[in-house]
Every structure is written in structure tokens, then in C-alpha cells.
Write a structure and sequence with these properties.
By secondary structure, the chain is α/β, with parallel strands linked by helices. The protein has helices at about 1-55, 60-65, 95-110, 125-135, 150-165, 220-304, and strands at about 70, 80-85, 115-125, 140, 175-180, 190-195, 195-200. The protein has a five-stranded mixed beta sheet, with helices on both faces. Helix 3 links the parallel strand 2 (about 80-85) and strand 3 (about 115-125).
Length: about 300
Amino acid sequence: MEDIERISERLDNIQSVEPIITSLRTIAAGGWRQALRRREGSEGYSRYLGEVMTATLPHISRRELEKLHLDTETTSPPRRALMLVIASQRGLAGAYNELVFRGGEQILDRQRMQSEEVLLATLGARATSAFRRAGLEPYISWDLPVTRVAPLELVRGLGQEMRSILAEDRADAIYLVYSPYRAAVTESPIAERWLPVDRSMLPGEAASWPEPFVETEPRRLFRRAIEEWALSRLYRIVMEAAASEQAARYRAMDAASSNLERIIGELTLEYHTARQHAITMEMLDLAAGAGSLSGPQGSATEMM
């Protein structure tokens, strides 16, 4: 009976965990789809802004482009680089956070060979804690929502703070380190420069007919378009990192759910086997007890 009680207790514990794992898998699937939709939306918005910049770029002087953090020609590596490493706010995402941390360390080491100073920034509590354990204190850090993907307001505030770092000459360039999205696997992180904007990243001057008609002042329109375009790029990268994180979490929870189903099946079979064995032993004990009672009574009758 002791084995039956132990198996039953373990089975109850695992069955109580199963709904939690299933819920986490469902939440990850929802966040995964939401991040992909927002990434696609930001890409469409960026294309629209690209058309606006294409129409207004010929009216903008080189000096004005420099004020907007736009490189007009190929430049050397920055003297001071700010590297923003994007991870997750919580765990249960398989090897996602560890992969981002290890890959981020390698990217930081490579950047230190090119720049005089490298400043570390983190987005997500897991990245902050991982680098602190490694002895690297982030220059600045931000948290992400725990149960949902980052809203546009959070990313906009993040962008404004990083723009101020660039404007105050605390850094010459800002790079985003993130794991690009793949549905089946978690990719190693890559680094992508956010600001200053490389001229080669802007849309070229494409011939169009009829010629676009610009009603407002072109310089003001271009300034607003490039600011929104940079924000859209930042939001797209944050959403891509979120999609990569949620996909990794979904795969981890799906594997955990499959393992729980297998363990529950094995424990159920083990419980029934142990129960049948206990019933068999009880019947054998009853039969043996009945035989011991009938044996002496029969002997007494023969003696009379």
C-alpha cells in the first residue's frame, strides 16, 4: 500500500502542474502571434515612410541630415558605442536567454576591439541579471512587461532616452543586439546599428510618375518622417525579439506538456499495476486465512 500511496501522490502533483504548463503554452502562443502581427505592421509603416522620405530627400541639405543623426558618408567605427542587448523579462523560454547572453558577450568583445569605449544597455530583467552575474553593470537598463509584448509607448520612451544619450554626446552610435526570429529554432543574436542612420539604409531616389506633390514644408516633413522611421525600426526589432522569445517559450512549454502526458500515462499504468498486485495479495491472504481456519475444525470433527 505504501507504493500505491507514493505513486498516487506523485500522480496528483504532476496532474496539478499540467494545467499551469498548458496555460503558459497558450499565453506564449498568443504573444507569439501578437508580436508577429506588430512586426508586420511596423514593416508596412516603414515602407510608407520610405516613400515620404524618397519624395523629400532631394530638398534636404547635408548639414540638416547630420542634425537628424544621419550619416551622409561611410564613417569609421564609433569611438563610444552603446550596445542595447534585448532579452526577456522572465524565464521558462528554453535556452533563449542564455543564448542571447552568450552571443551578446561575444558581440560586445568584438565591438571593444573597434571602439575605445563600449557602454552596455539592457532591455529585459533576464539580460540585466545575467550581465550583473558576469560582473558587467549595465550603463542603463529597462524592464519589459511580464505577461505581454512591449507596447509602442514603452518603445517610444526607450527611443527618446537613447536619442538623448546620443544628443548629449555620451555615445557616438547605438547598436541593437537581438535574436532574429525563426519559427523552428532560436537564432544566435546579431547586432544592428540603430542610430546614426546609415545613408545606405534609406530608400533611394526612385523615378515616379506623376511626380509627388508635397504640400507642407519638405524639411519639416522629412524630419518627422525620419524620426518615425527610426522609431518604427526600433519597434520592429523589439517585436522580432519578442517573437523569437515567445516562439522559444512555446516550444519549451509544448515539450514540457508532452513530457507530462507521457509521465502521467506511465504513472497511471504503474498505479493500476500496483493496485492489481495489492488486490491479488489481499485475496491470497484471505484464502490463506480461510484455509487455516478450516484446517483445525476439520481435525476436531474427525477426533469425535
